[in-house]
Amino acid sequence: MAIFASGSGSNAKKIIDYFTSVPDIDVDVVVCNKKGAGVIGIAGENNIPVVMIDRTSFQDTSNLVAELEKRNINLIVMAGFLWQLPESFVNAFKGNILNIHPALLPKYGGKGMYGKFVHEAVLENKEKESGITIHLADEFYDRGEIIFQASCEVDPNENMESLAKKIQLLEHQHYPKIIEGFIRKQNHS
To answer: Which residues pair with 129 in a beta bridge?
Structure first.
């Protein structure tokens, strides 16, 4: 699998740690679009190569697709990767791109809805619950088929930081297991 990440890499780290004890499934490469992102250091600590991309190389996906195919990548795992996927990239990995979103889709999805912006909107609308959605990714933000959701209560005195911590716990608890289950299911179909 390839992990696509742009930030600190907390989800990527949990995924990498999880799969170190799963002998038949590997994280083969990390793809990153942000110099200095924490995920680069995490990949380095785990001897996982990093492929850096910029907007131009990502929009003309042929080189990136060729690079991933050369590495026999058959699953893309998005872990805090914020760029919209080009249709040509989606077509190359159709049905094999997983994303995690910090809300219960279809609520609070779409362009600009990530991280603190999602949590702020959930709190502003006085939602009683929030959670995570793991879904197939396509060329539209947060519209792909939902694979899994987990929820948590939003307390009346919740703030953005406390809600973000609850959501991150759900992400770390579920994403690696759902990825493994998805891979096992794909291998048996």
So the answer is: 153
Digit-coded pLDDT (tens) for 44-60: 999 999 999 999 889 88
Counting the structural domains of the chain, the total is: 1
Which range marks the domain in which residue 118 is found?
A: 2-187
What is the spatial distance between Cα 71 and Cα 179, in angstroms, rounded to a whole number? 19
First CA to last CA across the chain, in angstroms?
18
Among residues 101, 119, 135, 174, the one annotated as catalytic is 101
Is 101 known to be catalytic?
yes
Question: Does the global pTM surpass 0.85?
Answer: yes
β-strand pairing of 2-5 with 129-136:
unpaired
Residues 6+ apart with CB under 8 A from 178: 98, 134, 147, 148
CATH of the domain at 87: 3.40.50.170
pLDDT digits (tens, 9 = 90+) for 128-149: 999 999 999 999 999 999 999 9
